[in-house]
Amino acid sequence: MAGDTERIEQEIAQAREDLAKTLDALAERTSPQRLADDLKTKVVATLNTPAVKFGLAGVGVLVMVIVVRKITH
């Protein structure tokens, strides 16, 4: 009987430790700074793709042409 009590206490202590580790991992994964860093990394990776680079360059050239035409007319 005493062995069962000790075993149960050890299991409870292990469950608490496991829960604490899980909560720490969740807190790390959902921290605002980490989420912002992950989003920044994804945005930079997307902007560095050739399709997006050339698309943005084309839009920039188009805007520049429109501005120059407005100024000269």
UniProtKB/TrEMBL annotation:
Q: Membrane-crossing residues? A: 51-68
Q: What is this protein called?
A: DUF3618 domain-containing protein
Species this protein is from: Gordonia rhizosphera NBRC 16068
Identify the InterPro entries for this entry. DUF3618
In terms of domain of life, where is this protein from?
Bacteria
Sorted UniProt keywords: Membrane, Transmembrane, Transmembrane helix
Mention any Pfam family matching this sequence. Answer: DUF3618
